[in-house]
Amino acid sequence: MAARSAQPWRRSAGGAHWIPAGRWDALGEQGRRRLQGLVEGERLRGLWVCAETGEAYDTMTLAAEAHGMPVSRLQKRNRLDRRNGGVHWVDGVTYGRIRRRHPGLLAAWRRTMRETMLRGPVVCVETGVEYGDAMRAAETLALTGRTRNTPGMRDLINHVRDNPDRRAGGFHWASPEWLARLASADPALLARLRAGSAPKGNRHAIRCVETGTIYPSLRAAAVALGLPAGSATNIGHVAGDPDHVAYGYHWASIADDGTPRDAYPAHG
Predict the structure, then answer these.
(1) In whole angstroms, what is the distance from residue 174 CA to residue 122 CA?
(2) Which side of the chain, N or C, has fewer Cβ within a 10 Å radius?
(3) CB–CB of 46/58 below 8 Å?
(4) CB 149 within 8 Å of CB 65
(5) Contact call for residues 144 and 267 (beta carbons, < 8 A)
(6) 3-state secondary structure the chain
């Protein structure tokens, strides 16, 4: 059906475009190049491109999943006056046009993203874990089930960072520079913040013995290893048993380690 289409560049099958061999031979070299250009243009128009980062996704669903937002937030592209998830979304053709004709606009968008979304490294005060930016921290909280709205949590972490009176996801957040200044100016306050208990509901926190990584739950450990969530049961079965492994690792629960529960980070 795709090959019989009057406009073969608009229809595909199996991820490719098709045309009858006789029709292809009749096109000639120039006609073939023109047809291939139309196919490429159609492919670009189908992409979902994050204008700020240049990342391109084949479908709207992939774009939404990569940015941790519901698909319903990405129903519109090429709205240069609106952001979805803190960034602008365009198709491949529009992105190329902006890069060629309006590089200053693209630079301004990227600058805004850095200022309002990324803002450099962020540290969880309670656990001491440092992330490259607030989005990476929010993604870790999403793994633990503490948030379903990753972009929203990213914005909240940026909003409460460097504020000892505010939390996001149950934790205090700070830039490395602010944390260093606080350690020098008010070590007692820093000690109180770090001594604060992690949010409750962390009954199944577990540590990978070989890597030392702490996971807030069996399920979070399984997901971090790229395993189905149901694999958490196998990890739980060998936790605390030095003679057995699950997925190539030994595992220890908080109780098995003899470490107080609150001393374990709720993410890591």
Answers:
(1) 6
(2) N
(3) yes
(4) no
(5) yes
(6) CCCCCCCHHHCCECCECCCCHHHHHHHHHHHHHHHHHHHHHHHHHHCEEECCCCCEECCHHHHHHHCCCCHHHHCCCCCCCCCECCECEECHHHHHHHHHHCHHHHHHHHHHHHHHHHCCCEEECCCCCEECCHHHHHHHHHHCCCCCCHHHHHHHHHHHCCCCCCCECCECEECHHHHHHHHHHCHHHHHHHHHCCCCCCCCCCEEECCCCCEECCHHHHHHHCCCCHHHHHHHHHHCCCCCCCECCECEEEHHHHCCCHHHCCCCC
pLDDT tens track for 150-202 = 776 777 788 778 888 777 777 889 999 999 999 999 888 888 888 754 333 33
CA distances from 206 to 91, 109, 129, 196, 258 (A): 43, 41, 16, 19, 12
pTM over 0.85: no
In this predicted model, what pLDDT tens digit does every residue of 86-100 receive, in sequence order?
778 898 889 988 989
Q: Give the span between the Cα atoms of 89 and 213, in whole angstroms.
A: 36
Using an 8 Å Cβ cutoff, are 189 and 172 in contact?
no
**What is the amino acid identity at position 169?**
G
Q: Cα separation of 65 and 79, whole Å?
A: 20
Contact 267, 205 (CB under 8 A): no
- Residue 13's pLDDT is 65
Cα(203)–Cα(184) distance, integer angstroms: 35
pLDDT per position as a tens digit, 71-82: 777 767 888 888
pLDDT over 50 at 268, yes or no: no
Per-residue tokens: 218: 């069996």
Q: Are 81 and 93 in contact (CB under 8 A)?
A: no
Quote the tokens at residue 136.
């990476």
